[in-house]
Amino acid sequence: MSGNGRDGQDGKDRRDRQGVRDMRDGRIVIVGASLAGLRAAEALRDEGFSGSLTLVGEEPHPPYDRPPLSKQVLLGRVRAQDCGLPARRETDAQWMLGVRATGLDPAGKRVLLGNGDQLPYDRLLIATGTRARPWPDSGEAALDGVFTLRTSDDAGRLAERLESGPRRVLVIGAGFTGSEIASACRERGLEVTVAERGRAPLIGALGATAGAFAATLQRAHGVDLRCEVTVTALRGSGGRLTGAEFSDGSRIDADVAVVALGAVRNTEWLADSGLAAGPRGVACDAGCRAFDMYGIVTDDIFVAGDVARFPHPLFEYQMLALEHWGNAVAQAEVAAHNMVSPATLRRPHLAVPAFWSSQFGLNIKSVGVPTFSDQVVIAQGSPEERRLVAVYGYRGRVTAAVSVNMAKWLDYYRHLIETAAPFPPGPGAADGVAGSEPVPSDVPDPHVLSHGPTVALTGHLPDRRLTLLRPDS
Length: 473
Known about the structure:
It contains eight helices and 30 strands. It is 22% helix and 30% strand. It is of the alpha/beta class.
């Protein structure tokens, strides 16, 4: 009996060791050659993966850093082509840039490419990210002077046009990207009109209290901010933009319009793949393994970065979709580890979301998920000082904090989030605000906004009617 048991355990150990070796070679394909794709490739090599590694990217450029595009590049301080991401190590990978992925065959384990090629894989990482939501009227979108901002090429073209000194810039949408564009334009001395369908800038990401502060800030810097209005038409003459019409009946003259209506997740190529992929991203578990359309987790397809939506226990396991630099890096590293590790060694992606923005002379940073809240309190500083920390709570516990020029305190609030500390927070901050009372966070339904929140909590969205599979009777 003991000998048989020992032989069985020895066999299991041999299989486990062999499984590790098998997963450290073979073929891995990464679709998406931006931040998440690059960091995943590097992490795979750090994890000891020695097999074939291929990265597919639709853009012709090597991976580059996106945050500077709406900040330093628009200000003319950095050229768009100089925003490349530094490599942490040699990846020994095949880079297929300027090539679109057009389909996925999970049964045959093949990625279909726009050039007609097919890439076989043993493990696949989907890191296709997002693209800028275009202006809905294609004719108006084609007018000279109408821009979006997502890619390096977008930023280069827009920076060149701003350098030429347009008479007025119209920014459509006042989320973080739209607000950063408006800030750069004002710093350049340009006249700016911002049109926002919601009640205030940043309201979709941070709620009404922070939105009111942002509105005051923009107007104080000379922005012509128009809230609760939409742009109904872009006007042109001779193929060039001349102005815009608004839902309240007003009009403006403008020779540049930047459409900042949020992002579209790049999932169309997965439409016939059988994965749980749709407008809200590709659903995966906390270990970055993709779900199929029936909710069954796959074991050879992983997801990371802006295109992923995943459950997080700190936020009641709702599916988070994050467009954050730090999240893309952390999730890519978790995905890479789990792609080459046996089940017993896999780990979850549980990092607390963090984000930052620079606009109108202020440094805005957040931790947690402000949209996952029902109350908010100014815990430190004040809007009048333009130096504050707003803390968000949900059902009596701390879920997020947003700082304005007080980033040093965010580690303290991150700890409160991680430990589900009571809301409102108790004493602990050196310059806590006496008498500050919580108010409703007033986070609007993202469906009524013209731009998406930077952090979105997404529930179930049936992208297509499902056919129930029943065993034969």
